[in-house]
Write a structure and sequence with these properties.
- The complex is a heterodimer of chains A (about 260) and B (about 775).
- Chain A has a 5-stranded antiparallel sheet. A 4-stranded antiparallel sheet of chain A has the order 11-12-13-14, with helices on both faces. In chain A, strands 1-3-2 form a 3-stranded parallel sheet, covered by helices on one side.
- Chain A starts with 6 loop residues before the first strand and ends in a 17-residue tail after the last helix.
- The radius of gyration of chain A is 18 Å and the shape is globular.
- Chain A has 3 domains: about 45 residues, Uridine Diphospho-n-acetylenolpyruvylglucosamine Reductase, domain 2 (2-Layer Sandwich), CATH 3.30.43; about 110 residues, 2-Layer Sandwich (Uridine Diphospho-n-acetylenolpyruvylglucosamine Reductase, domain 3); about 80 residues, 2-Layer Sandwich (Enolase-like, domain 1).
- Chain A is about 30% helix and about 25% strand.
- Chain A has 11 helices and 14 strands.
- Chain B is an alpha+beta fold and about 775 residues long.
- Chain B starts with 16 loop residues before the first helix and ends with a helix.
- In chain B, strand 27, helix 17 and strand 28 form a beta-alpha-beta unit.
- In chain B, about 55% of the residues are buried.
- In chain B, helix 9 packs parallel to helix 18.
- Chain B has a domain of about 170 residues: Aldehyde Oxidoreductase, domain 4 (2-Layer Sandwich).
- The chains are: A alpha+beta (about 260), B alpha+beta (about 775).
- Chains A and B meet through loops of A and helix 3 of B.
């Protein structure tokens, strides 16, 4: 597997990376964990002329509490998320989700920011990010801006990021103690990507509900119909069953296209 | 020696493993020759197209380029098919496409550069203009007058129409039947995925005219014969083929491939070494695929459940060309297996070998035998349900009784030995069959769907004998060679015609030799895979290494000991008949002090100072062992699964395997083969599928799409053995490399369908994916 020729850049700061992006535009690709980009380059499905490796930029990884939210650096690996005691305590949904990605090798290299920015329609994090009501912090030539997760995923492999912006952080709002969270997926037997993955967050009082679905369409979506059917209800088996059937009509499912699998 | 300390039968750790697990093996890609050039192939993106033009001008001026050759340059003989069936049509398979391409991945040009990167970049500059033609993928649809034809002179794309058994007798059996079960069964296309991709490196020496080819081959001598004599048309003795450490074959490294010939041709043309290593995607697209049968199978029973007849009609997908053993696998490795472990008075099997716009098919672990076994065992379960009998009882009722061996089946085979009841009983006991059925009942009441699936299988190892194979169309013998060279110090080098690509021959064969000679294993070295040092051998496939290769070694051992005894008797001034060979020395019966050690005798053989009159010096023997028959391992596998009808997910709860592979040289290695084999067959049952779309594009051409089994999807296997030695060969072994694969696919399929019985689901095509299971349950509920 031999990728086409490319030039390698290793900027030392986010600003340097942004100016490279601004200069090289569509000819450039950012490299974080590389678990989507490098296979595509090896198959020559992607042939960027420039690869900007952001892994050596300091300060882009780590998980910390920051003004009531949890801030996760874009370069934080899936393994770091999976094993974070802070997340286990405050946002177990993310540790659970990270633990279902690929295999240990993938989790040791792949990054949260890379996964969200790549916006693979079958990636795991997007469902969790939607259910949690996360925010994505993007940095560009004009500085930082915050994008709500519901505005972030635009379509197949496309996000709200501008060509000269870099995803630098993910912010998870705080959920009250006792909030129930879970991620369940039906993994593809070969790739382990989600054929369908569902993340759900429900507060103890049942008033606040978040449900994200990944894998079943061209992008991850919020299951608004399910959320509406659940919020404020006593969560017995009948209510859950009814909610599961309250599908949102706008969701175009891809299932048939993969029926040979 | 006591039995307990015998090397034969000991679980000795594999001596090859330290070098493999420390990354010190020498695989073809590790061969670094001075001045090596690197090849990349330009391949067809179309399943079927006419080549309008190939423009190589740009590529030829790319940086680092050495040469570009197309089908117009590389004029050699076609790649051979080595098994001829009556009336078979074998359209020529060119090394590089000539005028037309017939499957996605077919090589059109070879691009050679100073580095692999440069070659890959230059290959993108080769401009091939195609005129696409309609593609045929499904072998039943291809077998029709209206279907697009791959070759002008192969109407209906039919390469052969082969049958075995007695049609009239079988038809009569069906007329007399009380119950007939009938099912259309699919053995889906599989892709082997050996961990080491195919690779080859050729080096031609213009000064001497010698050509050396390093290649990932299971049978280097066969590769040399076919490439030198039939494709390149060069003297066989001027070519040396080396298959060094090879990382898995599973059948896909038996055939002779385009790339191997192309690098030989190019090295000769350029006077420089040329090397090629497949990318994983090329492995998916161009390694010989396996299986791909569509079958109508029906079995006739009397009211008591006795089998009366078995009728099978199969369309076998050969791919775009006949691979080296492409015609053998769906014919003589398939039809003769259809008696299974059962007394079946009448069998008739017809097979149409059909060409399609897909990668050529050939052997894939089990090769023909899993296809047959899946069918028999699925029909046995369908029949049990129809007859309202327990599947165990139905099987027992039809087993060939232990006192009927050797047993002549109605489809050519004579089974060497067998005792099927004890293996079944042992497996039932291990799984706790009665209790498991009770649990299944209970679980069903709680809305949990457990399934118990049996597979009582037979396997045929070590195809033989050569004379019969020849009469049936083989273009090769089926014997094996073994050269035993005893050195003056009593050290032994074994040169075996078998080839190890994971089987552990360096350990098992050393065990066999050291055990028989009563010398430490450290004194024995095993050499294989080099036509420059090993006598002509047939290589490794069809679980033949121990039964045929091992027997060849055993034969040489006896000849070595015979000569050794003569020398020892001479030195001891005793009669040969008075000598005993034990513990590595010859001694005079009754006076153990009068003895000559193996090493002393070896030394004298080379000193030649004091040998019996007229005896030649030296201690070295070559044997060619031609077995009189196949060997027939057998056993019972039982799978217990839970199926979630809401998602179609299958969880394997338990897997019990009781195999009878005859005598066992190294139980640890056999266990490893059984485990790997089971996993391979589970893959076919549940996940693996070499899926083409209607245009002939391979949909599962990466590891992201082709679902190989993973450790966390599998339970810990519970394995055991019964031992029925084979009377066919002198060491009593049968073969273990493929039993698991043959047995496990139907065991899993039967278990899944047993779990779904409450829904009335009787059949789902392989692989039993969640979506298929879910749809079948949904359809049944309607």
């Amino acid at each position: 597997m031999y990728p086409a020729q490319f030039e390698y850049h290793s900027p030392a700061s986010v600003q340097e990376a942004i100016s490279l992006l601004g200069r090289l535009k569509d000819d450039a690709k950012l490299l974080a964990g590389g678990h989507s980009l490098i296979p595509m380059m090896k198959l020559r499905l992607a042939q960027p002329k420039h690869v900007i490796d952001i892994r050596k930029i300091p300060g882009l990884s780590g998980i910390k509490e920051d003004g009531g939210a949890i801030a996760i650096g874009a370069l934080t690996t899936h393994y770091a998320v999976e094993s974070s005691s802070l997340l286990k305590q405050k946002c177990a949904l993310l540790t659970e989700t990270a633990g279902t990605i690929g295999d240990p090798q993938v989790r040791n290299m792949g990054t949260v920011g890379g996964s969200l920015a790549h916006a693979d329609p079958a990636a795991d994090y997007p469902a969790a990010a939607i259910a949690l009501g996360a925010e994505v912090v993007a940095e560009g030539p004009k500085g930082k801006r915050t994008i709500k997760v519901d505005d972030f995923f635009k379509g197949l492999l496309t996000t709200a990021l501008q060509p000269d912006e870099i995803l630098v952080e993910i912010r998870i709002p705080s959920w009250p103690v006792g909030t129930g969270m879970a991620y369940m997926k039906f993994p593809h037997p070969a790739s382990r990507f989600a054929v369908v993955g569902v993340a759900a967050v429900v507060t103890a009082d049942g008033k606040k509900v978040g449900v994200g679905i990944t894998g079943a369409g061209t992008k991850a979506v919020r299951a608004k119909g399910v959320e509406a059917a659940l919020s404020g209800k006593t969560l017995d088996a009948a209510a859950i069953k009814a909610a599961a059937e309250a599908r949102s009509p706008q969701q175009g499912f891809l299932a048939n296209e993969f029926s040979w699998r | 020696m006591t039995t307990a300390t015998r090397l034969f039968g000991s679980a000795i750790k594999r001596r090859e493993d330290p070098r493999f697990i420390t990354g010190k093996g020498t695989y073809v890609d590790d061969v670094k020759l001075p001045g090596t050039t690197h090849a990349v192939f330009v391949r067809s993106p179309h399943a079927h197209a006419r080549i309008k033009s190939v423009n190589t001008a740009k590529a030829k001026s790319a940086p680092g380029i050495v040469a570009v050759f197309t089908g117009q340059d590389v004029q050699t003989g076609p790649l051979p098919c080595a098994w001829l069936l009556p009336g078979i049509k074998i359209p020529p398979r060119p090394v590089l496409a000539q005028g037309k391409v017939r499957y996605v991945g077919e090589p059109v040009a070879i691009v050679i550069a100073e580095s692999a990167y440069a070659a890959k970049d230059a290959a993108e500059l080769v401009d091939v203009q195609y005129e696409p033609l309609p593609a045929v993928v499904d072998c039943q649809k291809a077998h029709a007058k209206s279907a697009s034809q791959l070759f002008d002179d192969v109407p209906e794309n039919q390469s052969f129409d082969w049958s075995i058994g007695d049609k009239a007798k079988t038809d009569d059996a069906f007329k007399a039947a009380a119950v007939v079960v009938k099912q259309r069964l699919v053995n889906q296309r599989l892709i082997t995925n050996a961990i080491e991709p195919r690779a080859c490196a050729a080096s031609y020496a213009p000064a001497t005219g010698d050509l050396t080819l390093w290649v990932t081959s299971q049978n280097p001598h066969v590769a040399r014969l076919l490439i030198a004599a039939f494709v390149l048309g060069m003297p066989e003795h001027k070519m040396r083929v080396i298959a060094p450490d090879v990382g898995g074959g599973f059948g896909s490294k038996i055939p002779v491939y385009n790339e191997e010939v192309a690098v030989c041709w190019a090295s000769k043309a350029l006077g420089r070494p040329v090397k090629w290593t497949a990318e994983r995607r090329e492995s998916f697209l161009t390694d010989a695929h396996g299986r791909d049968h569509l079958t109508e199978a029906e079995m006739a029973f009397d009211r008591s459940g006795k089998i009366l007849g078995f009728r099978v009609a199969t369309h076998a997908n050969l791919g775009a060309y006949l691979s080296t053993m492409g015609s053998l696998v769906p014919s003589y490795l398939y039809g003769p297996l259809l008696s299974g472990v059962y007394t079946i008075p009448a069998i008739f099997c017809r097979v149409w070998g059909v060409l399609t716009n897909t990668a050529p098919t050939d052997a894939l672990r089990g090769a023909g035998r899993p296809e047959a076994t899946y069918m028999i065992e699925r029909l046995m379960d369908l029949a049990a349900r129809t007859l309202n009998m327990d599947p165990v009882e139905l099987r027992k009722k039809n087993f060939i009784p232990a006192d009927k061996f050797p047993y002549q089946t109605p489809v050519a085979f004579v089974y060497d030995s067998g005792n099927y009841g004890p293996a079944l009983d042992k497996a039932l006991e291990m799984v706790g069959y009665r209790k498991m059925r009770e649990e299944q009942e209970k679980a069903r009441k709680n809305g949990q769907y457990l399934g118990i699936g049996l597979s009582t299988y037979i396997e045929a190892c070590g195809p033989a004998p050569s004379s019969v194979a020849g009469a049936l169309g083989a273009q090769a013998g089926l014997w094996e060679s073994a050269l035993l060279r005893v050195h003056p110090t009593g050290m032994v080098t074994v040169f075996t015609g078998s080839h190890s690509h994971g089987q552990g021959h360096e350990t098992t064969f050393a065990q066999l030799v050291a055990d028989d000679l009563g010398i430490p294993m450290e004194q024995v070295e095993v050499v294989h895979g080099d036509t420059g040092s090993v006598p002509f051998g047939m290589g490794t496939y069809g679980s033949r290494s121990a039964a045929v290769g091992g027997s060849a070694i055993y034969t040489s051992l006896q000849k070595i000991k015979e000569k050794g005894r003569k020398i020892a008797a001479h030195l001891l001034e005793a009669a040969e008949g008075d000598l005993l060979y034990e513990g590595g020395k010859w001694s005079v019966k009754g006076s153990p002090d009068r003895a000559k050690a193996f090493g002393e005798v070896a030394l004298m053989a080379y000193l030649a100072h004091n040998l019996p009159q007229g005896m030649e010096p030296g201690l070295e023997v070559t044997s060619f062992y031609d077995p009189v028959n196949f060997t027939f391992p057998f056993g019972t596998h039982i799978a217990v699964v839970e199926v979630d009808p809401e998602t179609g997910h299958v969880k394997i709860l338990r897997y019990v395997a009781v195999d009878d592979v005859g005598k066992v040289i190294n139980p640890m290695i056999v266990d490893g083969m059984v485990h790997g084999g089971i996993t391979h067959g589970v893959g076919q049952a549940l996940w693996e599928w070499g899926a083409y779309d209607d245009q002939g594009q391979l949909l599962s051409a990466t590891m992201m799409d082709y679902a190989l089994p993973k450790a966390d999807q599998l339970p810990s296997y519970e394995t055991a053995r019964t031992v029925t030695p084979s009377p066919v060969n002198p060491i009593g072994v049968k073969g273990a490399g493929e039993t698991g694969t043959i047995a496990s696919t139907p065991a899993i399929a039967n278990a899944v369908l047993d779990a779904l019985a409450p829904f009335g689901v009787t059949h789902i095509d392989l692989p039993l994916t969640p979506s298929r299971i879910w749809q079948a349950v949904k359809a049944a509920k309607k």
